[in-house]
Amino acid sequence: AQLLEQLRVRADGVVRFQLVYTAEAHASDEWPVGSHIAQRQPRSTHERVSVARRRLAELGVNWPGTLVDTGREAFQEAFACWPLRWYFLDGHTVTHIAQPSGGAYDVTQIELWINLQLERATNA
Q: What is any Pfam family matched here (predicted)?
């Protein structure tokens, strides 16, 4: 998470990071994994906002404008984002979707895309 926050700060003004919180991936009342996750699935928009804020604080990231899905799963149905996806957009066009491997992301995919955007902005 620290590397992502560093990338966000470095690319500020060229790349915008946007988080959309949709649901707990391993909620204690749906799909518990171990005892370290004690969060039940939020049932209201207010609960979703609270959990999203807490998760960002736990990760130590400061992404302005975090969005929270209402729980109707419209974002998930449109973008197949569960449990986690990185989408790269140019304007309103999705240009790349980072794919997880082994349940995790290679952050270098994200870093390479950001570096390309910074290079384009420098050469523009």
A: T4_deiodinase
